[in-house]
């Protein structure tokens, strides 16, 4: 019921918002560097990324006030309703000054004209060369930077090190080694899934496409062309789905699994290998303390070795064009995304900082659940096509549909990939 | 007809005025806006700029020419609604008749038991059914395998018909208590003398039910059927939350999920509004037909 009311609510708010848009935004141009006494900066941050975010933002707030004289007002937003809240507040002209935006949303909001470009600020501070590239790519729209890289996460191959040790296996470095490790696990532990192949998780698919030399989509002039139906991509998807269909490493249930189901089942000890995010180890141990120290990560192997790229997820800090004092908003963004607070946020949340120099520091860690992810992030970080239209492809679950259809036997790899490529082309080149 | 003064004629409108004004603001105005949006290509960009973007009836054209609508969405929605309403009303009536024949103690016990099914939030209920039919660890598959009826686990969510069979169980389980309680209230209002007289005349239980109870409860049935039809037509959460139900299994799309995925998932608010307008018209049509048949039969 709630979901059906939502569209109406959006439209109603839109209706009122349109009439209210005319007012507001009077230029308070006292471009004094950072003295903004008496002002308040409104910020939206996603809830749950950092378990101790209240204390963190108390500290940030104090530092911010000390530096600028302005007060910081942080509001925590649930990931699940965040997109709808952004849309309704954009409609009503009540967006915050600065907000955390998921990497796939930044281009979308920028395209709508809701964000303010921040490229000039970054250039003024000479920060441009020290930002994690994948996050810059996803934060850039029409050659302008709209999303300031804040933190990043990446998916790698997570495996049960206790079982690998028991069977004398080494972390796989090529596709063949994944299969031989899987066969060994299947023989010794038939009650476990050797490799989980979830049918409703698109980010588990692209590494195999890229690892085989294929592309998700490429832009040629103004036209997007999906590469999912190329022979390389098909080979990758064939390998991935064969792990379930030919080798029997997965299960019937996994055909309709989402990433959260993979996490739950890994935590319950049902899964030996799976692609999982750098933010999941903490959650796994929290769900099942017995697994502590019994699993490790390794970069996703390419077909014949090397690292297969994996989608780099995470968040930007974006400035909305309703920000009353852009300079003040930028001060906050800079405070959060560089230096001490950025490093501290990464430590507390289990994500990687968006500043290259900080990231390099984390890479030297010898934690088996940190270093491999960091390597994946730096040497094998991929980005989904940067166009607001890709959000529509994701909403329509084009890739998920293809994988699920293959896993459930509705379509062959050729049929499913060519259908998916056609649908992607239609959406991404649509008006 | 005697002539009435203008004031007398105006009085009902004056009395209705405030309520009508509130309704117009709260209901009519949004409806009008939704209709206006449905004639536009309205996305995030238009929300930000505030500029209208008229495209005439193109949204409606796109809806009617989409093959998914005709081959998957409508058959699923209508077929499911018909089955779900029939099952809900049949089961609800059965339980109501059962409860009417029980003593006060057992009536309270049965009543509270079915109230629990009703009180359970749709989301919670859906997850329970998902667990029951889970391919790898669900009790349903384990039982079938233990009985030797099935060698390997089967994922019941990937097939269109088994998918909707599970949705049907879920929706009927969640929906029948309302029907049962409403009809029970009506049943208790049926004059005892009438039933006794029929029994004396030799009418069996089956006949008494169809000849006396059903005609007496016509209005109650009308309300229950109309409400169930509207609810079962719009079913969303119970499909969206099922494995594969949020769009990755295209065979399982129904009107609610399809419109969400196609419009709001993709920020196409104009397209979504067009679907909402059509859905309103369809449900309005169904309601009008029901109400008219009921009224007509009453007049006879």
Fill in the keyword field for this structure.
heterodimer, A: 431 residues, alpha+beta, D-Maltodextrin-Binding Protein, domain 2, 2 domains, nine-stranded mixed beta sheet, two-stranded antiparallel ribbon, 19 helices, 13 strands, 15% strand, globular, disordered N terminus, B: 300 residues, mainly alpha, MetI-like fold, 14 helices
Q: Averaging pLDDT over every residue of chain A, what do you get?
A: 88
Q: Secondary-structure element order of chain B, as H and E?
A: HHHHHHHHHHHHHH
Q: Count helical runs of chain B.
A: 14
Q: Which CATH class of the largest domain in chain A applies here? A: Alpha Beta
Query: Roughly how many Å apart are the termini of chain B?
Result: 26 Å
User: Per DSSP, what share of the residues of chain A sits in E-state strands of 2 or more residues?
Assistant: 15-25%
Please state the structural category of chain A.
alpha+beta
| Beta-strand residue fraction of chain B | under 5%
End-to-end Cα distance of chain A = 31 Å
Please explain how this structure is put together.
The complex is a heterodimer of chains A (431) and B (300). Chain A has 431 residues and is of the alpha+beta class. Chain A folds into two domains: 37-153 and 312-382, 3-Layer(aba) Sandwich (D-Maltodextrin-Binding Protein, domain 2); 155-311 and 385-428, D-Maltodextrin-Binding Protein, domain 2 (3-Layer(aba) Sandwich), CATH 3.40.190. Helices cover 47% and strands 15% of the residues of chain A. Chain A contains 19 helices and 13 strands. Chain A has helices at 2-20, 53-68, 79-92, 103-112, 119-124, 133-139, 161-166, 175-188, 206-211, 231-245, 259-267, 280-287, 326-337, 339-349, 356-363, 371-379, 388-395, 398-407, 413-428, and strands spanning 40-46, 71-77, 98-102, 140-141, 144-145, 147-159, 217-220, 223-226, 273-277, 296-298, 310-319, 352-353, 381-382. In chain A, strands 1, 2, 3, 6, 9, 10, 11, 12 and 13 form a nine-stranded mixed beta sheet that branches. Chain A has a two-stranded antiparallel ribbon with strand order 4-5. In chain A, strands 7-8 form a two-stranded antiparallel ribbon. Chain A is globular, with a radius of gyration of 23 Å. Residues 1-32 of chain A have low confidence and may be disordered. With 300 residues, chain B is mainly alpha-helical. Chain B has two domains: 30-65 and 267-300, no CATH class; 80-252, Orthogonal Bundle (MetI-like fold), CATH 1.10.3720. Chain B has 14 helices and no strands. In chain B, α4 (67-100) runs antiparallel to α11 (218-233), α5 runs antiparallel to α8 (160-189) and α6 (122-132) crosses α8 (160-189). The two termini of chain B are 26 Å apart. The model of chain B has no long low-confidence stretch (mean pLDDT 90).
């Amino acid at each position: 019921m709630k979901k059906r009311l939502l569209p109406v609510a959006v439209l109603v708010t839109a209706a009122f918002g349109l009439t209210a848009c005319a007012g507001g935004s009077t230029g308070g141009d006292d471009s004094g560097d950072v003295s903004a006494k008496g002002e308040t900066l409104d910020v939206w941050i996603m809830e749950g990324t950092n378990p101790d975010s209240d204390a963190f933002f108390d500290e940030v707030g104090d530092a911010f006030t000390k530096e600028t004289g302005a007060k910081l007002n942080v509001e925590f937003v649930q990931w699940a309703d965040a997109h709808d809240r952004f849309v309704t507040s954009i409609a009503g002209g009540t967006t915050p000054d600065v907000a955390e935006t998921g990497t796939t949303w930044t281009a979308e909001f920028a395209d709508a004209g809701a964000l303010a470009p921040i490229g000039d600020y970054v250039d003024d501070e000479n920060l441009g060369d020290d930002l994690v590239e994948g996050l810059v790519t996803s934060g850039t729209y029409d050659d302008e930077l709209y999303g300031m890289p804040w933190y990043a996460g990446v998916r790698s191959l997570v495996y049960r090190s206790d079982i690998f040790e028991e069977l004398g296996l080494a972390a796989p470095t090529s596709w063949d080694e994944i299969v031989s490790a899987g066969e060994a696990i299947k023989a010794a532990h038939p009650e476990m899934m050797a490799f989980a192949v979830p049918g409703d998780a698109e980010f588990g698919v692209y590494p195999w496409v890229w690892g085989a030399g294929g592309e998700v989509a490429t832009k040629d002039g103004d036209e997007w062309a999906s590469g999912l139906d190329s022979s390389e991509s098909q080979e990758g998807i064939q390998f991935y789905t064969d792990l379930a269909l030919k080798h029997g490493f997965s299960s019937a249930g996994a055909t309709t699994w989402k990433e959260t189901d993979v996490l739950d089942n890994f935590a319950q000890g049902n899964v030996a290998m799976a692609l999982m995010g750098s933010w999941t180890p903490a959650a796994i141990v929290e769900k099942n303390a017995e697994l502590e120290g019994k699993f490790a990560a390794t970069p996703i192997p390419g077909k014949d070795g090397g690292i297969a790229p994996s989608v780099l997820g995470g968040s930007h800090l974006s400035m909305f064009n309703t920000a009353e004092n852009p300079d003040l908003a930028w001060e906050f963004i800079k405070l959060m995304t560089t230096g001490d607070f950025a490093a501290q946020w990464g430590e507390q949340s289990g994500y990687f900082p968006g500043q290259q120099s900080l990231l390099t520091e984390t890479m030297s860690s010898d934690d088996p659940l940190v270093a491999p992810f960091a390597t994946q992030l730096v040497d094998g970080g991929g980005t989904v096509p940067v166009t607001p239209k890709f959000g529509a492809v994701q909403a329509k679950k084009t890739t998920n549909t293809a994988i699920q259809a293959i896993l459930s036997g509705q379509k062959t790899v050729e049929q499913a990939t060519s259908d998916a490529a056609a649908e992607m082309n239609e959406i991404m080149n649509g008006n | 007809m005697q002539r009435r003064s203008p004031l007398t004629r105006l009085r009902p409108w004056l009395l209705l005025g405030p309520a009508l004004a509130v309704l117009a603001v709260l209901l009519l105005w949004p409806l009008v806006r939704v209709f206006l949006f449905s004639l536009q290509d309205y996305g995030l960009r238009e929300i930000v700029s505030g500029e209208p973007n008229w495209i005439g009836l193109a949204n409606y054209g796109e809806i009617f020419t989409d093959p998914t609508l005709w081959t998957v969405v409508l058959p699923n929605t209508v077929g499911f609604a018909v089955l779900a309403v029939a099952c809900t009303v049949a089961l609800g009536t059965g339980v109501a008749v059962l409860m009417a024949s029980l003593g006060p103690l057992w009536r309270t016990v049965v009543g509270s038991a079915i109230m629990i099914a009703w009180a359970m939030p749709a989301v919670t209920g859906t997850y329970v059914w998902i667990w029951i039919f889970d391919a790898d660890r669900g009790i349903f598959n384990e039982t079938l395998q233990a009985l030797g009826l099935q060698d390997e686990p089967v994922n019941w969510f990937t097939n269109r018909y088994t998918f909707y069979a599970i949705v049907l169980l879920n929706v009927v389980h969640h929906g029948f208590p309302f029907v049962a309680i409403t009809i029970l209230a009506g049943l208790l209002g049926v004059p005892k003398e009438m039933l006794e007289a029929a029994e004396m005349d030799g009418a069996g239980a089956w006949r008494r039910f169809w000849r006396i109870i059903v005609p007496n409860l016509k209005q109650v049935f009308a309300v229950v059927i109309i409400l169930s039809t509207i609810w079962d037509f719009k079913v969303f959460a119970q499909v969206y939350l099922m494995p594969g139900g949020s769009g990755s299994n295209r065979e399982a799309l129904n009107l609610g999920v399809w419109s969400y995925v196609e419009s709001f998932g993709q920020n196409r608010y104009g397209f979504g509004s067009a679907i909402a307008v059509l859905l309103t018209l369809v449900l309005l049509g169904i309601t009008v037909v029901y109400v008219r048949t009921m009224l007509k039969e009453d007049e006879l």
